[in-house]
């Protein structure tokens, strides 16, 4: 049988019961750190921001909506012990698919190819979403260049500029900010254009989160997570007209160490002699 990328054939087994037992005790998890991502300014266009958050393996990153309005967040996961290991879109696509839901793991690429984090709880009611849409996915982050093309506006805040801010907080540079990432609380779909000539990402449904909605990510190893308060706001208007609202980021202590991940077989020794040697 041929392998169909995007089907469940490539999903590694996950012990859902273990994570369910973990979540059952979440009311007792103490808050280690808490951040409020707030925009600068009170009228659109508003300047947004990014932060760098460190987690120890076994802790939880919680992103939530503290007020009546919601805002998109972009998240980038890196191994804090070696930032060369980070979330990796091709590996994510093959092992889990593009959308992020409860029990979805955030995968790093080769040569590690292992989970960095696992989404263990998502409280948003997504019944309003059209068929084919998710509210969390691996999706492109907005950039000041894209906003310049769309609106002619220079120096606009974007998720890329926010990721650069966050990377610099961690002593890193734009080589980190350019990595792929996932979005949270952003209704989106990846599908062909009506004429079938191209495939694009569509973010054309406004955010409908409620106050108190949150998503939890369990750290499978020590992490550096870059978080961006997206300049798209709740995607109810254009970048220049949308109102940005604060979102909360917390680090929670579970007191539970991660399960041991069984590494994939190392195929490299078998293939090392296949390299074509140049004269």
What does this structure look like?
The chain has 279 residues and is α+β, with helices and mostly antiparallel strands. It is 15% helix and 28% strand. The chain has six helices and twelve strands. The longest helix has 11 residues, at 159-169.
Sheet with most strands: strand arrangement: 1-12-3-10-6-5
Largest sheet, if any?
Answer: 6 strands, antiparallel
**CA distance, first residue to last residue:** 40 Å
**Class inferred from helices and paired strands:** alpha+beta
What share of the residues does DSSP label as strand, in percent? 25-35%
The DSSP helix count reads 6
Low-confidence stretches are: none
- The SSE order reads HEEEEHEEEHHHEEEEEH
Described by the principal axes of the CA atoms, the overall outline is globular
Write the layout of secondary structure elements.
Elements: H1 16-23, E1 31-37, E2 50-55, E3 59-64, E4 73-79, H2 89-95, E5 105-107, E6 115-122, E7 134-138, H3 144-151, H4 159-169, H5 174-177, E8 182-192, E9 199-202, E10 214-219, E11 223-229, E12 247-253, H6 268-271
Antiparallel strand pairs: 1-12, 2-11, 3-10, 3-12, 4-8, 4-11, 5-6, 6-10, 7-8, 8-9
How do you describe this structure in short?
It contains six helices and twelve strands. It is α+β, with helices and mostly antiparallel strands and 279 residues long.
Question: Which terms would index this structure?
Answer:
globular, 6 helices, 6-stranded antiparallel β-sheet, 28% strand, 15% helix, single chain, 279 residues, 12 strands, alpha+beta
């Amino acid at each position: 049988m041929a392998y169909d990328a995007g089907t469940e054939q490539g999903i590694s087994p996950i012990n859902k019961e273990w994570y369910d037992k973990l979540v059952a005790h979440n009311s007792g998890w103490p808050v280690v750190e808490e951040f409020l991502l707030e925009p600068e300014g009170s009228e659109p266009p508003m300047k947004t921001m990014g932060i760098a958050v460190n987690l120890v393996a076994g802790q939880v990153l919680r992103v939530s909506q503290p007020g009546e309005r919601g805002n998109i967040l972009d998240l980038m996961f890196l191994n804090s012990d070696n930032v060369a290991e980070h979330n990796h879109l091709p590996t994510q696509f093959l092992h889990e698919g593009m959308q992020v839901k409860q029990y979805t793991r955030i995968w790093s690429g080769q040569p590690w190819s292992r989970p960095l984090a696992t989404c263990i709880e998502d409280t948003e009611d997504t019944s309003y979403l059209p068929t084919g849409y998710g509210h969390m996915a691996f999706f492109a982050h907005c950039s000041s260049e894209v906003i310049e093309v769309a609106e002619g506006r220079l120096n606009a805040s974007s998720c890329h500029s926010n990721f650069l801010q966050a990377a610099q907080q961690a002593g890193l540079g734009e080589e980190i900010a350019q990595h792929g990432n996932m979005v949270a609380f952003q209704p989106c779909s990846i599908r062909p254009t009506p004429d079938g000539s191209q495939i694009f990402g569509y973010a054309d449904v406004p955010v409908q989160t409620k106050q108190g909605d949150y998503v939890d990510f369990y750290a499978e190893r020590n992490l550096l997570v870059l978080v961006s308060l997206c300049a798209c706001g709740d995607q109810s208007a254009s970048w220049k007209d949308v109102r940005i609202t604060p979102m909360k980021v917390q680090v929670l202590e579970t007191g539970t160490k991660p399960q041991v991940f069984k590494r994939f077989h190392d195929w490299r020794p078998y293939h090392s002699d296949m390299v074509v040697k140049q004269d």
